[in-house]
UniProtKB/TrEMBL annotation:
Keywords: Coiled coil, Membrane, Transmembrane, Transmembrane helix. InterPro entries: DUF4220, DUF594. Residues 446-476 form a coiled coil. Pfam families: DUF4220, DUF594. This is DUF4220 domain-containing protein.
Amino acid sequence: MNIFPLFLKEIWDEWNLRGAVLVSLFFQILLIFCASSRKRTGNMIMTFIIWSVYLLADWVAAFAVGLIANGNKDGDKQVQNDDLLAFWAPFLLLHLGGPDTITAFALEDNELWLRHLLGLVIQFIAVAYVFLESISNDLWIPTILMLVAGTIKYAERTRALYLACLGNFKESMLPPPDAGPNYAQLMEEYSSKKEAHVPVKIIIAPEKRASTSASSVPEEPSTGPNHISEMESGYKFFKIFKGLIVDLMFSFQERNDSRKFFFGMLPEKAFRVIEVELNFMYDALYTKMAVVNRKIGYFFRFICTGCIAVALQLFASHHKHKIHKFDIGVTYALLIGAIGLDVIAIVKLIFSDWTIVLLKNSTAKRWIYYAREKLFFYKLWEPSKSFFDRRWSNSISQHGLIRYCLRERFKWFDKLADICGLKDLLDEIQYKKTVTVEEKLKEFIFKELKEKAKSSEQLEEKAKSAEEKARRAEQSRIAKEICSGRGDWILSQNACHSLLWSVEKEYDECLLMWHIATDLCHYKEQEEKEKPDDVQEEELRRLDRQLCICLSEYMLYLLVMRPTMMSAVAGIGQIRFRDTCAEAKKFFRRGQQEPNCFKKFCKQLKKLLRIGQSKSMEDQISEYCEQLLSVDTVVNPIEVKGDRSKSVLFDACMLAKDLRKLNKTKRWKIMSKVWVELLSYAASHCRANTHAQQLSKGGELITFVWLLMAHFGLGEQFRIQEGHARAKLIVTK
């Protein structure tokens, strides 16, 4: 019994292979043009499309190889000429190698390099089997050429995955083993000289070491965001600090060089250098750049392109009267598509940041840089030029607790979404908003971290009188102590001791309290609408307030919607957030009767259609904030409610009232500094691989802060002993 009609089966038998090879080619075209956009945007639709194509591309190519291997036994049913079957097979090996723009979709894909190596062997055997089955065909020379090209491509991908695997990535950065001086021989000589009554002593002589000074980075006047000097600086620091991803330690010399370099930079340029540095990290972890951007990489790439070009020429001169016209068209599509993709890859490679920084001739650097700016495909999408120019999304996501409580969905809908595993996705769609990272925010973060680094440096200067080992230990302790501040350092510096209770709690509790308190202060101040005495002071206060709101909502987004990234500091953040939301909803609904399902549906429909709404969402939030601040909080909430509920709603009200006792200008200035400290604490305590994972999702501001802190020497990744010394025997008089 046939489930499908006979004519459908005939269509499938006739077109399945042709369709598979063309779809495989189409997926390669999509990937080479679209894959790199995932580092520039966190858009879920774009990410989903790239993920789908990435997975399907391998599946379709492997499926087509299977069809060819199977169809070689009864070739008349699919393609009239068996020679063509053997010729098509290596193209699929080429497609399995993938484009240069993507080797891994996620960081975990690199750990599967061994699976890809096995896949390479199996697929090569399958293609070789197809070729050997038709060894006497007229297209054996172009088939061999394409087999060489396909094997090179697939080997490149496997090698790239191997190098980006975190274990191998770390091993590649480890210095050669150093056994140190020959202790046994040294002591033997020392003892023999002592026995001979020769005056001798052992001294430790410091060795000369290669300078890693960041000040050697060329400083040229910057003419744009992609200037060569910034690329060179970014590449230099990438080579040193890429070890952060795998938790390597760095010397104090490297820290001092990096700190000195960034102390002398403007905030805008510092962020651009870090942007370049993170872009190199992205390329090393998710693309073929680490493989192809070497002399041997260029050599194999030109062999690959040459093989395809010669195969195209040989097929064009081949007698094709026995081959179906459509199959001829498919073959030309595969050949022209392959050579076109390779040419695009070579052009991208030649004009990449990697080529520019690795060239030693400064004239060649400038020529390639300016030629790249003039290339037609860089100008093709002029309205979206800023998108193709940038190296990350340059945006941050926002999430507000009070807004979330006022825009709740139907309970039955939430339960259904939870069962389907879609609740988190729906929350992101409904409650998350995205804003551009303003230059003012970058500047403020840079200045705050620079100030902390200078404070650390000043404290280290005071410890210089101690012995070398003790001094290094003290420097390390000071940097760790300042780095571990999460608001307490700022509050102590500004003599706000009455607020210290709010930052002495667990990190997630502290973050939620400050988030709600920031909203309460913001909406209360908006409601008051006092005429400013000093316009300039009011403008500065408005800027600080905007920075607070932006960082507050960004940090809540990370805590609630990116729990894996914040897992090292989040604690019971998810539970605390839910309990706080439950208490907030209960407070907002007090005095109101719980509506039935029909009334609730009508209410939600009215909200959706904006029927009969006299108050905007902002007005509603402002009204509820006023109600929260009117609650008497003289008694600590935990004494009244106990500790079963982890809600911090009224603790936040207490904090907001304490903050409102401060002068307006001082209040927002301190709050903005506290938020930067909360951000930097989370950045330095997140696991390094979570920062690396975000590079393929548009990037995160917290990753920039993490790297900037490392460049300022704020963290625990600097070792105490440098070890550049050797023991020597010296004969004394």
